[in-house]
Design brief:
This protein is mainly α. The protein has one helix spanning 23-54.
């Protein structure tokens, strides 16, 4: 089987595909996602502080 493809004959639909055959990668991936989420949140927080400081707070999606 090429990497990343699922063999339909042995595949159970209830299996969580994200974690199949990737135990060694999943933790690294999780850490990367958490790190990215933190960076995004920090950027939003900085932007919010800047907007609050100058009184430009508007109802917009960032």
């Amino acid at each position: 089987m090429p990497e990343g493809l699922v063999d339909a004959s042995t595949h159970s639909p209830s299996t969580n595909d994200c974690n199949v055959d990737l135990p060694h990668k999943s933790k690294q991936h999780e850490v990367a996602q958490i790190s990215m989420a933190r960076q995004i949140q920090n950027s939003k927080n900085r932007l919010n502080r800047w907007e609050n400081c100058f009184g430009y707070v508007q109802n917009c999606q960032i």
